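Entry:
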Amino acid sequence: MARIIKGRLFTRGNNKNYHVQYYLNGQEIKKVLRDENGASITNKKVAQKAMDKLLAPYLVKDEVQRREQAASALKTAKEKAQEIEQNQNILEMKNVWQAYLDAPQDDKPNSGPGTMSNYKRHWAEFVDWLKIHYPEIKYFNDDITESIAKEYATYLRNLKIADSTFNYKHTTVKLVTRVMMKYYHLQKNVWESVKRVNNPKQNTKDNFTFEQGVATLEIFDDDFYMMHKEQIKTIFNLGVYSGMRLSDCVLLKWKNIISLTDGLAIKCIPIKTKRLNKEIIAPVVKPLQDELTIAKNWKDKSGYICPDVAERFIRNPSGVKKDIIKVFKHAGHTVSKNESKKKRKVSAIGFHSLRHALFSYLASKGVTIEKLASWSGDSQKTLLQYYLHADNNKLITEAQEIISASVIDISADTTALPSPEPERQQLINLAKEIPIDIVKDILQQLQNKNPY
């Protein structure tokens, strides 16, 4: 079609005859305007009408072309929009994890870096399994059926992994599917058909008691070599008596040892709860205080309580962890159980066993869940699940002792009962009468002051 740019009028010479200039298909055209009798036009209004009449056929063609082009562009835009909308519902399996990361934060839990790393690994394991067993499934859609979900669950169970690990992997695929399914219009979350293991057995860890943890400290007196042995001993003391995780014990600094009214305490934010800015307060009991006094011998500018091990841990954490296992092994504990199909040894006793042993012990001695939560940094739900369980045999024994001690024979000769020393009894009586502030001041004077 002809393409024309609207012309312009101009005059040439002294006779003031009007001419028109326009472009047709990119070619410039100039001509004089004439009336019906062929005479040159000298009047501007007449010239304007003559130009409009001359260019009218071309302008009409140009307008038609413009409208056709506009309609074509609109059609193309609509088709592209439809294509984009359809493609929004198409997601390749290899891109699901990135789509999960890009999903609005309100749609998913606020997970820390460690948890996200585990989620990513667990999801990748499922995708890799799918490639082998169902290579025809390329997209995240309803082709992943309940049957496939149950088949994958059976595959995981056949790996003979811990119940808790199975639940973790199941939770991951279920979570990712739940978050993404509303964006890609899946009919249902097929992982709902796979059942978690209720009350999973912690079959990768042997029972380990607080008393065994304390006994482990004695092996450091044995004659065996270990790099930075004295500092490793301090780290074990921190684990036994504070219940902190290995990384928190290794990287603990002197500034985290504070003085409270009732004595010393550890005040820090564990690495696991750093993103929540969740602080713990762990009492420094007498054996741990004695160990920290020894640790002052290697105090340096780094501020770490165990500076050499801390520096090594930052550089090579696996090396420190291997030394931790050596300690348990030297103490006579089983350090590995049945190997998995991947030939990876599973730890039966580890540094985390010290944490579990301490808080289970404290719970058995009646320390409240609120205090344990403040001490450990764990939620009350986690404490109830892992630490506040009861040993049924011990429960019966303790009940017998408590009830028996509560039943007093009034006919018995109470004069035969041992009585406290008169000085202690006098101090007890005074403590009941004087104000509590004075009691606290006296206690503070009696206790050792913070040497750090």
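The two ends are 92 Å apart (CA to CA).
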